[in-house]
Amino acid sequence: MALHTLLLYLLAALGLSLTPGPNSLLVIAHGALHGHRKTLLFTVSGGALGFLVLIALSMLGIGALLRASSSALGVLKWVGGAYLVWLGVQLWRASPVHLADAEARPDPRGFELFRGGLLTALSNPKALLFYGAFLPQFIDPQRGLMLQFVVMAAVFVAVEITVEYGLALMAHRIRPWLQRQGRRFNRTCGGMFVLMGAALPMTR
Asked: Domain total for the chain?
């Protein structure tokens, strides 16, 4: 993966990680309820493992498709870009998130927190579709696919862990801000997805 592509991917992964979703809401709730250390050790690590599994599944599907057709990457880029634009429009129109929905029954046991983070990541079928649309935008067909996939997975999981730990640290401050500014935040993130979906298929 070229350096400029890696930097673009890093920026895109950061934007994706900052977008509110089930795992980020769970991390905020657990950070407020159980503290940032326990949330990092269990909830965040469970979610990171779940994302890693979804990324691996997406990569297997992408790799198989690219082996079957030399022109598949171009098709994936355009279809994936259209899907990102659609997601951006949906996020723009979405109602603000309600953090109370993420506050399940408090349970301080580490295994329960880990399982909550893992299952929250794995139980979102949209995430698998998203990775399938997101990852091909940064693939260079002239380079080894496996190394690119490993780098992209490692970078994304590292960014996700960093962002979610930051959310856990600032849980008490972020919660009321998201409740007040949720719709504006959704529109900002939705606009980012639309721009990314429109621009990335043009890149080479």
From this structure: 1
